[in-house]
Specification:
42% of the residues lie in helices and 7% in strands. By secondary structure, the protein is mainly alpha-helical. Strands 2-4-3 form a 3-stranded antiparallel sheet. The radius of gyration is 24 Å and the shape is globular.
Length: 215
């Protein structure tokens, strides 16, 4: 009996590797900003994001605060959806907390809100973030000598001045963020540490040349 030719096999599209996972981001509005714009709440949320779930007592020890204060402000963060219970970590009556989102996005229109309370909260939030960045950098500079040379080479303290339009500046910011996020889900390897990246971009007026007085 003659053999029938095999049915043609449909070509299989190549499987493309999955790209890096996008971080979950909470964009602040007027209400959530007022819920977050407190120095201790900002630091509590940062600690949970950087170091993982913790109890109010653990966070109090870490931040040099009373457990009563950290417990109260954690509940306020929970009421505004920034943190939630992490019951899988708890034992007995311990209450553990974790961050709900990986990052917070700030809408600059909040600085122009018609409500002065919102404008004040926006100002406090931005200045507290700048203060935290300064403190983190100062801590690194004070402790850099205790780190191996490979990590001192892997750190950076640079600034640049570019001549850009507002649109070009925004484009560059997005490109930097995309590049940093592409390293977010690299496979774990020996020697991995948590590394903090700060990015600051802002326009400045050129210095005005004053006319020299005739001698």
């Amino acid at each position: 009996m003659p053999e029938h030719p095999a049915d043609p096999v449909d070509p299989v599209d190549p499987v493309e590797p999955a790209g890096p996972a996008e971080p979950s981001v909470r964009t602040l509005d007027a209400r959530s900003l007022r819920g977050l714009a407190h120095p201790l709440r900002i630091r509590l949320l940062g600690a949970l994001r950087h170091d993982g779930p913790a109890t109010a007592s653990q966070l109090a020890d870490r931040l040099g605060e009373s457990s009563g204060a950290t417990s109260y402000h954690l509940r306020q963060l929970g009421a505004h959806g920034f943190v939630e219970d992490a019951p899988e970590h708890g034992k007995g009556r311990e209450r553990w907390w974790r961050a709900v989102y990986d990052a917070t996005a700030f809408d600059e229109t909040l600085t122009l809100d018609e409500d002065p309370a919102v404008r004040g909260a926006a100002d406090l939030f931005l200045h507290e973030i700048a203060t935290i960045h300064t403190q983190e950098l100062s801590t690194w500079l004070g402790n850099a000598h205790t780190w191996p040379q490979e990590w001192r080479r892997g750190a950076d303290l640079s600034d640049f001045t570019l001549h850009l339009t507002a649109e070009q500046s925004l484009e560059l910011i997005h490109k930097m963020h995309d590049l940093i996020n592409s390293y977010r889900d690299l496979p774990a390897s020996e020697g991995t540490k948590a590394v903090r990246f700060h990015t600051h971009a802002f326009p400045r007026e050129a210095a005005v040349q004053r006319p020299r007085r005739a001698e």
